[in-house]
């Protein structure tokens, strides 16, 4: 295609995250849908993406990143989603809790809690913000659990304690899932008598782990769109406990100081 003013400013680069994520797939779809032929989607990680955003933002330089909500970056920086009139990024989604087959029998208390686990985007953001401010994920989760004892009691009331049984929680190192998985681990450990471990893996192995029974649970299935490929492939070998959060969003994100409002303007 021809020259594009915004494209020239950012070297026709969109800063992405880990290649297996649904967000990267949706961004490739957007590049196709909007005819952004001369653009490059840069692979990396959630951490590399936020580091690049932080550097650009501090220097008030132009940058386009792949982003999602809930995320602390919208609280720390003044950002905007680019309009997506072709809906390449899909609509608002739910995050589902997925466990391995047999967990209901093998760890009934954990299963009952995981089935009840449900919170609001503002809750997740509270944990994410405190981690981005430098608190360890463990301490941020523990503080959140202490502060929200009423909600935690709703999740755990009447559930008998286990006797130190181990549990494996699989997760990908996305900031949203670092927050949720740490809260789930904290509740299982301090309220329900389990010895939960967190296994940090890539998105594919996370699903394979639950489907094959090597991991017990995860709280990171963005549905119906973002995790669709993995869900379709493994849904018959896992147990879907339904939504733990509603109201997510994905898209291309820029600092508010940039003079662009829609993905269409990148063409
Ligand atoms: N995310 C966060 C993930 C799901 C959770 C939006 C980066 C993705 O698969 O894209």
How would you describe this protein?
With 267 residues, the chain is an alpha/beta fold. It has two domains: 5-91 and 250-266, D-Maltodextrin-Binding Protein, domain 2; 94-248, Dipeptide-binding Protein, Domain 3 (Dipeptide-binding Protein, domain 3). 42% of the residues lie in helices and 22% in strands. It has twelve helices and nine strands. The protein has helices spanning 5-9, 22-33, 46-58, 73-76, 103-106, 108-116, 121-132, 137-147, 149-156, 175-190, 203-212, 228-234; strands spanning 13-15, 40-42, 65-69, 79-81, 93-100, 166-171, 195-200, 217-223, 238-255. The strands form three sheets. Strands 3, 4, 5, 8 and 9 form a five-stranded antiparallel sheet that branches. Helix 10 links the parallel strand 6 and strand 7 (195-200). Helix 7 (121-132) crosses helix 8 (137-147) and helix 8 (137-147) crosses helix 10. It is globular. The model has no long low-confidence stretch (mean pLDDT 97). Bound molecules: 1,1-dimethyl-prolinium (PBE). 1,1-dimethyl-prolinium binds at residues 17, 21-23, 68, 174, 176-177, 220, 222, 226-227, 250.
CATH superfamily of the largest domain: Dipeptide-binding Protein, Domain 3
Our count of domains comes out at 2
CATH first level of the largest domain: which class? Alpha Beta
The level of helicity is 40-55%
């Amino acid at each position: 295609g021809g020259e594009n003013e915004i494209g020239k400013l950012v070297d026709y680069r969109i800063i992405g995250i880990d290649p297996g994520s649904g967000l990267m797939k949706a961004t490739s779809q957007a590049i196709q849908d909007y005819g952004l032929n001369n653009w490059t989607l840069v692979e990396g990680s959630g951490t590399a993406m936020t580091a690049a955003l932080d550097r650009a933002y501090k220097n008030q330089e132009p940058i386009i990143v792949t982003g999602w909500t809930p995320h602390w970056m919208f609280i720390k920086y003044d950002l905007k989603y680019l309009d997506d009139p072709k809906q390449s990024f899909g609509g608002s989604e739910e995050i589902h809790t997925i466990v391995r087959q047999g967990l209901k029998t093998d760890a009934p208390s954990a299963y009952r809690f995981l089935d009840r686990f449900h919170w609001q985007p503002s809750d997740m953001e509270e944990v994410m913000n405190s981690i981005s401010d430098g608190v360890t994920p463990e301490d941020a989760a523990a503080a959140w659990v202490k502060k929200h004892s009423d909600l935690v009691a709703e999740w755990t009331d009447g559930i008998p304690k286990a006797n130190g049984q181990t549990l494996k929680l699989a997760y990908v190192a996305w900031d949203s899932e670092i927050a949720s998985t740490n809260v789930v681990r904290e509740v299982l450990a301090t309220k329900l008598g389990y010895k939960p471990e967190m296994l940090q893996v890539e998105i594919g192995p996370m699903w394979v782990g639950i489907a094959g029974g090597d991991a017990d649970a995860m709280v990171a299935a963005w549905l119906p769109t973002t995790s669709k490929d993995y869900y379709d492939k493994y849904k018959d070998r896992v147990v879907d406990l339904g939504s733990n959060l509603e109201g997510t969003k994905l898209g291309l994100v820029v600092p508010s100081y940039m003079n662009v409002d829609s993905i269409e303007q990148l063409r």
